[in-house]
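Good morning N.,

You mentioned wanting to compare the apo and holo forms, so I went ahead and generated the holo version with heme C. This is what I fed in:
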Amino acid sequence: MRSLFLLILLTLASEAFANFNLPPLPPREEFGNIIINRTSTANDQQPVTFSHWLHRSKFTCRVCHGELDFLMKTNATEITERGNRLGKFCGACHNGKIAFRHNGNCDKCHNGDIAYSNSKFDAFVLKNSMQMTMTGNGVNWSSGLASGVLKPQAYIKKKSQDMNFEKELLLEAEMSIIPPAIFPHKAHAAWLDCDNCHPELFNIKKKGTHFSMVQILNGEYCGVCHLKVAFPMDECKRCHPAMRE
Ligand code: HEC
Ligand code: HEC
Ligand code: HEC
Ligand code: HEC
Ligand code: HEC
Ligand code: HEC
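and this is what came out, ligand included:
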């Protein structure tokens, strides 16, 4: 009886959720790809292509969003040609040692083509036997890491302090009929530094922050990553394990 009651409530709840607008998704090989154009066209250059799936298969988020000071917002970082040449930003790797060098390769970055790396995607999936999911890049980045098929570098110069914090939190929605969301620290610390989230996005105190699905879908809190680069909001069950499909 009680479970029937719950079932009805859950159905009502998912209908309520139908009013939330999930943003449309690009093809899986383009999910997380961006075009950077803060200064390019103004300086007679084609805008710059950048693919998250290609780079995150080789480096954790913290390398770029910690060590190298890229902000998690397109066109927010003051990336310059001069900086790149001096070995900052993209130039920290695109120096002929870690990746193709800056000089002579202008068109590899300045081509305005968001689909530039698409032709490499299938080979990446096959080579690593990636476990597939329904949305986003269509690959399960968490399992790829856990099984060891992916070994993204954790730093390029400055080793981060290893802080093993594995606490999994249950985030209860204010609407008590919704199965709580989980927040596993382990699955995040594998890619990110504590200061990618604390204290700017979340207080270091459970329920010190208040966030709702509407705010998340507006690109705040979990939505900073889970709309753009990490698996998207469509995969309800990965955050609300007790929710029906
Ligand atoms: C090789 C470097 C690199 C790696 C690795 C990387 N990023 Fe980024 N990321 C960037 C750059 C560059 C930008 C654009 C910054 C700008 O234009 O100011 C960006 C932008 C973003 C954005 C904003 C996207 C948008 O659509 O506006 C998010 C979110 C993000 N990154 C999350 C992540 C997460 C999560 C990871 C790890 C899974 C990651 N990044 C790994 C370089 C990287
Ligand atoms: C590894 C990628 C990459 C390569 C290679 C590259 N650039 Fe850029 N370049 C960028 C990024 C990213 C920006 C910032 C773009 C923006 O915000 O619009 C940029 C900005 C610029 C700008 C804007 C104005 C300024 O001074 O910052 C110019 C001009 C430029 N690059 C010229 C070049 C030339 C010429 C080459 C080849 C010799 C080159 N770039 C190679 C990534 C690259
Ligand atoms: C942490 C190191 C690192 C940083 C930072 C980095 N890249 Fe890369 N990038 C790589 C590696 C490694 C490859 C693959 C090897 C190669 O192509 O030389 C690559 C490949 C690429 C490619 C070729 C993709 C293809 O399909 O062949 C482009 C374009 C590119 N990067 C653009 C950028 C831009 C733009 C930036 C800065 C906004 C940037 N990268 C920052 C390491 C990096
Ligand atoms: C990236 C993780 C994540 C995904 C994916 C996700 N949610 Fe949530 N959801 C949350 C969090 C976190 C909360 C808020 C919990 C709290 O209040 O602390 C929440 C709250 C809710 C609520 C309660 C009402 C509200 O606005 O807070 C509903 C209903 C809900 N989610 C439905 C869904 C449905 C349906 C899906 C799939 C389409 C989904 N969620 C996908 C993390 C997620
Ligand atoms: C991807 C984002 C993210 C990263 C990275 C992250 N955290 Fe958290 N952390 C959270 C969220 C979300 C909460 C819950 C906040 C709330 O409920 O208001 C939290 C809560 C906490 C809490 C409070 C736990 C409790 O039971 O009250 C501690 C302590 C904490 N984090 C430490 C860390 C440490 C140490 C690291 C680095 C190893 C880290 N966090 C990395 C998102 C993150
Ligand atoms: C700074 C970026 C960032 C933020 C903010 C963030 N996540 Fe994540 N999360 C990731 C990345 C990266 C992964 C690895 C999987 C992937 O990329 O698809 C991940 C994985 C997860 C997983 C593991 C799923 C699995 O199947 O292994 C859950 C659950 C999750 N996130 C929930 C949340 C919730 C809930 C919030 C907000 C309270 C949140 N995340 C905030 C970046 C982020």
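The beta strands are 33-36, 48-51, 168-171, 181-184.

Happy to go through it together on a call whenever suits you.

Best,
F.
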